[in-house]
From TrEMBL:
Protein name listed in UniProt: Phosphate ABC transporter ATP-binding protein
Keywords recorded for this protein, A-Z: ATP-binding, Nucleotide-binding, Phosphate transport, Transport
GO cellular component: membrane
GO molecular function, one term: ATP hydrolysis activity
Keyword Transport: yes
UniProt source species: Acuticoccus sediminis
All copies of domain ABC transporter, residue ranges: 31-273
Length: 278
């Protein structure tokens, strides 16, 4: 049964009703996505998805390769704008503000909604400069003393301070992969974002570095709204509060992570988490 479109997205032709399992205690909502479709040229990759993203919690997007997880994730900070021929329809509201509004400053939006990518991508600059670049261009601080405070605070929050405090002026690219990824997280939080998007942030890391980053994600949820795309179902279970299961561009089922993994309602969710396909 199709859900009635709530926006003017003519592509919101949901082929069935997403199964939604509420949290036992309701959480405040940070982002509301309604009837969001993403089209590359003439190919629709995401079909009229609606979901509420809870504040100060971790939401995991899971599903087989090519089901649209990353494409949908990029809608939350308008990164799809950078892809020629890509169109986003529907509505995404963050704290009541329309993120697709043409008058919105996307540079500011990307500071409010930071992103950590699959492959750590520090700037070819010092550890110190990696962190203070954002605060400087966004006018959060200019004086060295203020920047020093931001650099230390961000590296402490990212769990990296003790490892790098004596080498702040060495290149960020000289760190290990796991340290580089924590540097990228520190860089994202240096501009005081509200939301952090993580697109398979541990896929290039070894198990020890992965455990460190996962511990960090759990701590960061106290202050930030986090959305993580992951291929690791054990990672989704370890770090997330809610999980959304995608299949061929549709959102099949979303709910508390324990419900999705222990008592999935939809056969496709059940098959995926039990490893029938992926
Ligand atoms: N820049 C692009 N141009 C055209 N098509 C794209 C582009 N990026 C993604 N797609 C297509 O959109 C669909 C969804 O891709 P997306 O990368 O969002 O899936 P995903 O679930 O994140 O996959 P994976 O888990 O493999 O990263 C796929 O069919 C993909 O080929």
């Amino acid at each position: 049964m199709a859900e009635a479109p709530k926006t003017n997205n003519p592509h919101a032709h949901n082929r069935f009703q997403t199964i939604r399992i509420p949290d036992p205690a309701p959480r405040p909502v940070k982002i509301e996505a309604r009837d969001v479709s993403v089209i590359y040229g003439s190919k629709e990759a995401v079909h009229g998805i609606s979901i509420d993203i809870p504040a100060q919690a971790v939401t995991a997007f899971i599903g087989p390769s090519g089901c649209g997880k990353s494409t949908f994730l990029r809608c939350f900070n308008r990164m799809n704008d950078t892809i020629p021929g890509c169109r986003v329809l529907g509505e995404i509201m963050m704290d009541g503000e329309d993120l697709n509004d043409h008058s919105l400053d996307v540079v500011l939006l990307r500071a409010r909604v930071g992103m950590v990518f699959q492959k750590p991508n520090p700037f070819p600059k010092s550890i110190y400069e990696n962190i203070c670049y954002g605060p400087r261009i966004h006018g959060l601080a200019h004086k060295k003393a203020d920047l020093d405070v931001i650099v230390e605070r961000s590296l402490v929050r990212a769990g990296l301070w003790n490892e790098v405090k004596d080498r702040l002026h060495e290149p960020g690219t000289g760190l290990s992969g796991g340290q580089q990824q924590r540097l990228c997280i520190a860089r994202a939080i240096a501009v005081e974002p509200e939301v952090i998007l993580m697109d398979e942030p541990c896929s290039a890391l070894d198990p020890i570095a992965t455990a460190t980053v996962e511990g960090l994600i759990k701590e960061l949820r106290e202050n930030y709204t986090i959305i993580i795309v992951t291929h690791s179902m054990s990672q989704a279970q370890r770090v997330s509060d809610r999980t959304a299961y995608f299949h061929l561009g549709d959102l099949i089922e979303e709910g508390p992570t324990s419900s999705i993994f222990n008592d999935p309602q939809e056969p496709r969710t059940r098959d995926y988490i039990s490893g029938v396909f992926g």
